[in-house]
């Protein structure tokens, strides 16, 4: 027995619409509505389900709160170009480009924050 892949994660946010605007407008994710009006962000073969803080769906994490995630996304866009794009839209790049190690090997990364303060890493495999 073994786990094969990650299907989705849940991100607890303060404002779902603000998060959707950020992730769709700057990271190119797609807004998805499912179930009884629940919202998610789709990209590749994965999705991020969004829970509004204080209105989470059950079952949920033991201590869900906005700003507690640290996520790494792989992009086909060179991170140097992505940094310029984000900076031109007023997004502060906290670090990078820097070399790191991803799940499959060496990556080049930049770091930024989403509206809730979650740390986001955008990476290219080298």
UniProtKB/TrEMBL annotation:
| Keyword Metal-binding attributed | yes
Keywords attached to this entry: Metal-binding
Database matches in SUPFAM superfamilies: Glyoxalase/Bleomycin resistance protein/Dihydroxybiphenyl dioxygenase
Domain of life per record: Bacteria
User: What PROSITE patterns is this protein classified in?
Assistant: GLYOXALASE_I_1, VOC
GO MF, one term, reads:
metal ion binding
Q: What name goes with this protein?
A: VOC family protein
Q: What is the scientific name of the source organism?
A: Paenibacillus sambharensis
